[in-house]
Amino acid sequence: MAEINVQTIPNYLELKKQYAIECETFLALNKDKICEAFIEYFGEEYRDRIEYRFNYTFFSFYFLFPKIKEVFEVGQKQELPPKIVDKYQTLLSSYEAYPKPEDQTVPDYFVYISDENLLVEEKYRERVLTQIAVHHNPTCVANIAYNHVYNFIAFPLLACNFHAFIHELSHAVTTEMMAIIENEGEYTPLISNGVYYTTVQMGKSDDLIVEELLNDIGTSKIKELATKRGISKSMIFNNIISLGFEYSGNLYLVMDFYNAFEPLIKKSRIENSRNLLLNGVGEDNYNEFVSLVNKYYVHDDVPTEEHKIEAMKEISPVIDKMIKYYNDNNIDEVLGRSI
Ligand SMILES: [Zn+2]
Prior knowledge:
About 55% of the residues lie in helices and about 15% in strands. It is an alpha+beta fold. The strands form two sheets. A four-stranded mixed beta sheet has the order 2-1-4-3, sandwiched between helices. Strands 5-6-7-8 form a four-stranded antiparallel beta sheet. α8 packs across α9 (about 275-280). The site of zinc ion has 4 residues, from α6 and α7.
């Protein structure tokens, strides 16, 4: 589809309408192909599970105007080509000029929501909006509605690409609600996101970063499989200003681990079984690995070559121990050679 020329669209509502059509069209044309790519990656035996989770994944797309404005104001503006600056200034002024309705339930910077009812519940809406405001990243939030667990993906337009979209979908496909815990009238879901789990009452496991990095490696592979199936290009993935951070600089921390145990990692993540992974590589080994990844993970920056060498000097022997554990305990046989 041709790029929309915002210079000729002074009206925010008009622009919003065009983007909404583009979002809806992209999903209608590509959702099934993307779902097939997930099935190809995790395995045909997980078709029902993956299709089920796809059916309970809802999508929203938004322009995060407050953050876009901040980016321009703090001076990143100079680093952007003048054409893009012009474009965003037009977009921002078009948004600012538009008269905001007073009693809106969902903020008007949301362009498209596949099911608006999901944001009607105030508590849940606040949770989604807080996630957006804190991370400025695409996000995937699990909740219960229509008697089902569903995942709600909130995706920022202009600031993200197709990789980020698949990354969030991959969270949705690997998220399992294991229990609902009631505490003083409040319901808290116990959620497993791949091998990582979180709940207010039981605390969080400390492998969030490991899960994120494994998810991101899987994302690249799924993206490739989806692209082969012919995903149509869309302007909704034009990543013109980058508001979030990327995992790519830190992937080396888990790459050898991923390559050594890819089938086991996939199985553990799609079955939401941390135990499967712990039994396969040894619990102590895994915990040691997790704490080293956490130790060497670099936030908001790119690690230096020296940093990487130092990290791998500690991580590599732990992976060797895991491989030995796996072989000594005949894990292939224990798991029925299915991995
Ligand atoms: Zn993530």
